[in-house]
Amino acid sequence: MTGFRKFLLQGNLVDIAVAFIIAAAFGRVVTTFVAWLTNKMPKSMDDVFTNTANSFGAFLNAVIAFVILAAVVYFLIVTPYTKAKEKFFPDAPEAEAPEVVLLTQIRDSLATR
Predict the structure, then answer these.
(1) Residues contacting residue 7 through CB under 8 Å, at least 6 positions apart
(2) Does the global pTM surpass 0.70?
């Protein structure tokens, strides 16, 4: 079970899955935006908000769906994943740079003279 936990939390599996979900939703936004741009200008306000594949309403719907999906993914996947990763695999303390260690040794050797 430890190996599976390590596979899930230390690998990029969750990162890639989240990227795939967000990319698919954003692809829908781009598709509806291009369809809306290539459509003829609407004749009336009723034509603007009709729910066809190439209308402003479809584009607005895709943007709202993208924002909702991004919020759900963030709060239900990314946040718990980050907390679990910090709990099971805490970050190691950063080591001093080699230059700092060398300068400290030089300082100490000069101080002893």
Answers:
(1) 13
(2) no
SS in 3 state form for 34-96? Answer: HHHHHCCCCCCHHHHCCCCCCCHHHHHHHHHHHHHHHHHHHHHHHHHHHHHHHHHCCCCCCCC
Q: Domain count for the chain, please give it.
A: 1
- pLDDT tens-digit map of 13-48: 888 889 999 999 999 999 888 888 877 555 555 655
> What DSSP line would sit under 4-23, residue for residue?
HHHHHHHSSHHHHHHHHHHH
Q: Could you tell me if 55 and 36 are in contact, meaning their C-beta atoms sit under 8 angstroms apart?
A: yes
Residue 109: CA count within 13 A, CB half-sphere: 6
**d(C-alpha 12, C-alpha 14), whole Å:** 6
Domain hosting residue 41, numbered range: 2-112
